[in-house]
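Quarterly update from the structural biology core.
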Amino acid sequence: MSTMPVRAAMVPVSQRVRAFFAPMNQATGTPTLFDPGKYGTFLLNAPPAPWLDLGWVDNLVRYCGTTTQPLRAGAQGAPTAQFRGPLDVRIEFEFREWGKLQMALACGAEHMNVLASNPNANALPSGGTPLPGVALLSGSTASELVVGSAVSQFSAGELLAVDVDYQGQTGYVGTGLAGAYVSSAASVNYDANYIRRVTFNVARVAQVTTNSLLLAQSLLGGTPASGASAQQVIAFVDREGGAFFQEWSALFVHEEESGGRVCFHYPRLGPTTAIERFMKLGLTPSEQSGSAKLWQREVVVEIAKPLNSLALQAAFQAMPHVDENDGQTVVCYRSYFPAAMAAVY
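Predicted structure, tokenized:
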């Protein structure tokens, strides 16, 4: 009879990958950090704040182009030490669900709310002059908007953008998290509605009471700022181009079926060009840099002819973070939570 120990549950088994994103302060470069010792194997349907559940993703590919270089010495040029070359770490995947955040992350630039337009306004591809906003009254919260007698202007099911008027300020704008960067008031045509065009403070009305609007989901930016107004949102629109680069913190979880959970935490992710398709085409890195036109941003997934679903292709460059424990510059953390009673090695 064999007396060899049983090496149980050492192979992580997972069906799909779950994506969680959290806002980072772009003005200060401060990310949202995932502490595996603090959060552990949290419930995927109840992520710790401020992490946001963006659903399942497919075809996740992690790419590391960071090289190691030898330091050579002696007559034979033998390697005597090693050092790392420039950090080049990327990740790409497909969102299988469409929503404001999924679209914003996939486009990487300014993501806009199409505000309900004034019928007499000139037509513009990102939305023309909108109907006036409704000022919020005191007592408004992230989940309830007090508007008084103006409740008659709203209906359950409508989408709303909630934020302050644009008043000529420059820099990052948007309550709670940056929706755009304004270089000058003239660049946004002194538009009082501009912040509500780009804000992430968007939610759907679940119920209309006698003087307030109850929201189906809390506003991402929290309690509306003083002087905020609400405007109806008809659709979301993003664009190819734009000067603004979003940055987010990200966490990808292989939910455990057996054998433990695996997590990939990127403190800072910025948009970049997808690489997997270039690799399939046999292009070198230098050829990839000039071939962004080959990146198809939507992927058609056949359900059953003639039905297809559309998946959002997203690709990111991992940006550096200085680890507080030892001052090392890193771009990604991989955590493994072993299954109960699993062998350690």
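Residues 17-70+80-108+245-337 form one domain.
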